[in-house]
Amino acid sequence: MKSPKSGPKVAPTTTDLRAKDPTVLRAEIDVLRQKIADKAIREPRKAAIVLAEWIAKSPLARKRAG
């Protein structure tokens, strides 16, 4: 009988990294702030879209949906 092969190695997700190191989350928030600041000046509606997309991808949104 063959032993089961382990699956392909997968890079850790941002959620995994956030759980291990809070500086990852802080860095992600800093990038988000910069994107919103850039968009808010030129296209205020798109700034709201950037924020909404980030919230939709967050683990909290997945917990609420499921």
Description:
- With 66 residues, this protein is an all-alpha fold.
- The protein is built from four helices and no strands.
- The protein has helices spanning 14-20, 22-42, 44-57, 59-65.
- The termini are far apart.
Task: Based on the model shown, name its key terms.
single chain; 66 residues; mainly alpha; 74% helix; elongated
Layout of helices and strands, plus pairs?
Layout: H1 14-20, H2 22-42, H3 44-57, H4 59-65
Helix pairs in contact: 1-2, 2-3
Domain count: 1
Unreliably modeled segments: none
The radius of gyration over CA amounts to 17 Å
How confident is the prediction overall: mean pLDDT? 74
Shape: elongated
Secondary-structure element series: HHHH
Structural class: mainly alpha
Percent in helix: over 70%
Total number of β-strand segments? 0
How widely separated are the two ends? 39 Å
Proportion of residues in β-strands: under 5%
Number of helix segments? 4
Write down the oligomeric state. single chain
Largest sheet: none
